[in-house]
Amino acid sequence: MSNKEIKSRYHILHVEVQHGSDRFDIHLHLERPPIVRDLMDEVEKKARVTAMNQQLIFRGQRLHQTPDKELEKFGIFNGNHVMLIGDKLSGPEDDHFRRLLSIEKDVKLIDDVLELLCRDFENIKQSQQTRNQCDHILSDLQSRTERCQTDLKTFASIAKNLNVDRSEQDASRKKKEVVELIEDRINISTNIISAISSY
């Protein structure tokens, strides 16, 4: 794939977000134009100011008020500076939130692997080979999917056992999001295993 093809396929945006005296480099690489919500999600990870507590301001425009709007519609391009207003998490809640962000990141990596496994399986189905002709490949796909599922179950156990106090509202919300994400991906992996087994 040439540089020109990469540029036409991916939308790449690098901005600096200033939060008090802190500065954060935010890099967005997407297959669609980035929206405000994408920026807010990255800011949440880097600055640990939760999306619901963020006020993002660019040249007097309040980005956070329209989270589904494309960033380029605000005139935001590479190298621009965005101001962040909002309280950073602290103490045990910050520790829990960071741990959950780390789990979420690992789960998203597994999600990418599951997507590739699905694509490989679809390619096998489209090639119309018999089970005997591709038994070795199918066995490998199933084994890799089972490893992903085992890892997901481990992450689910870690997330569920994370002792987040009810007063830690942002960490509680993130825990719920992460557990739901993991359970969804466990279901997907179960469906992939079932489809491979019955091919």
UniProtKB/TrEMBL annotation:
Q: Where are the transmembrane segments?
A: none
Q: Which organism is it from?
A: Adineta steineri
What protein name is recorded for this chain? Answer: Ubiquitin-like domain-containing protein
Q: Which InterPro entries match?
A: BAG_dom_sf, Ubiquitin-like_dom, Ubiquitin-like_domsf
Molecular function GO labels: protein-folding chaperone binding
Q: Which residues form the Ubiquitin-like domain?
A: 13-91
